[in-house]
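Following up on my earlier thread - several people asked me to post the actual chain instead of describing it. Fair enough. Here it is, all 361 residues.
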Amino acid sequence: MRLASPKDSRLLQRCHSRRGAMRSKSMRIPFVPRLLARIADQAGVRVELEPEFEFAGRMIFPNGNFHLFRAGNLNINRAGSVAIAEDKNYTSYFLHQSGLKVPRELTFFSDYLSQNLAPERRRSIKHACEFAAAIGYPVVVKPNDGSLGAFVVKAHGPEDIASAAERIFTKHHVAIVQEFCTGNDYRVVVLGDQIISAYQRIPLHVVGDGRSTIDELIVRKKDGLAALGRPNTEIDPSDVRVDAVLARHGLSRVTILPDGKIQRLLDNANLSAGGDAVDITSRLDASFADIAVNATRALGLSLCGVDIVCEDATRPADDYTILELNAAPGLDNYASVGEEQSRRVDEMFLKIMKFLEKSSA
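Reply from S.P.:
Thanks for posting it. Predicted structure:
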């Protein structure tokens, strides 16, 4: 059951709107614009990119109509639906209202936001800890409007919640403490009523060689990402969450792992944070395909990445939880898995071009 959520208020929306200015300062490779330019001839479309950074451009269709885009924002989804999808707590509410399974969760607020809320609406770290104790540790603490797995922490006690909140509130004003759901992490990408891709996400990890410290293995993995076709993956070797995970296993950054030993470094499985993908598109069970399509429809989206935790998405759905939705799913890391995955991504964007051509007529 979904617990108390802040009502829709203009103040909360203004705070949420700051997300654009708070994103990572690092410059990402313009994957989608360059892909559109590469496949444009196949769709009979001309693509013009802004020449300096190639993040923005326009598609010019044979009838003379055009469509502007910026990075991965192609306007294929309605603005209201995108705004809801970017707010994790609102997303859970509407998914729950549609009969889909979501984790128990509670929002809590920074001091700055709380002082602008009516006293009965204020929720602090204290309330987050009380909620966590009621549903049982561990819990997940994360920004309500974050992306790319930034600031996501698996908390094992009140001290973890407090330290996670301190970091989150440096850039966000609303955080969530959420029930920890066991199982494997899957991303299913939906376009209309079709499944474009489905893959299991494996959290950032290193493999020991019997000689190198964990710190050395992290740096080596980070430096090798571009060669794997993943220039937009951002591994932070100094991420304090790595220290917390290692400490739980009685390890440290100077530990030398035995040859072949696999050591997980983060609890969240975002590919953008260094996780890996195992493709299951051809093996995704029809029941999970239906769940992903229904979740996409529940928010009125046309394109959506649905994040599901379950035991095995290649078997009929027994128990599952939808963690969140992504209205602009990044597919650059998925496309790097292999030729088949790259082809699927190309085909998806060709379909999007055709969709936009019709909608712009």
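The first strand starts at residue 46 and ends at 49. That should answer part of your original question.
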